[in-house]
User: Fold this.
Amino acid sequence: MLIAALGLLALLPLSVEAYEVLILQSSRAPAYDEALKGIRSVHRFTERLLVLSDYMDVDLQRIAREDHPLLIIALGDNAYLSARKIRQIPVVVLMAPNYRGGSGGHPALTGIELHLPPERYLTVFNAMGLKRVGIIGNPVKSGHYIRLIQQSAPRYGIEPIVREVSSPREVTGQLASLRGEIDALWLLPDDTAVTRETTDAYFLFSMQQQVPVVAFSSAYLQSGAAVAVEIQRHDIGRQAGEIVTALLDGDDVSAHAPTFPRKSSLRSNPTVLRRLGLSLDSASRAGSSR
Assistant:
């Protein structure tokens, strides 16, 4: 019994010396490391880093109560879901696909959404002369963003054709309903609609229907996406770092509304573009760093 108890204690983070910022990181991943470098490049602060995937269980309420950090940075979905339960400390969220702005009822929570402003993608579709754009998403996770797309799309001459799913199993059927209806597919960072299990279905549809896929990550270019418009992770870290600095200097969280990433990178697959007879003009490329 004693050995078992000691083993359990080894899984729990121990108290440390006083620090300003508690950083919760969902797992060990290069994307989080890059964002964290961006945060640290803005302002140096004393910190404690907890990678949640390293532990069987973490008592965050106890840590917050005993360590008294001034604020929490949450990197990733699991970190976000854990941090929002700590209501007595301000929380800054980033790199969390399921963070959709707002405070979620938390008295002092803000952050940077993982979605880019819809206009950044709409500019690309417009540049390629693509008008009818298919979008598949879970309304619970992507509904707010899809409504923003629908509001902005008419200014770019784009017609969003939306299909809703509540499970990855529904994606294939919803893709079938888009046959002959769209000029392009827009992949959202929606972990219901776009998963390892559904990715092949999107690119099979793309090949069969001869429509391009525009994705949120350049990782999809090797699978057959025509274009990827993705966040710049280091800069999203800098954005969060600027908020953290202001809060440590005494700003109230209410002065820092949730926002979109301010910079993006545009990547393309020239082979796919040529096969589909498409090109990107200079206007769409010029906006890639905005």
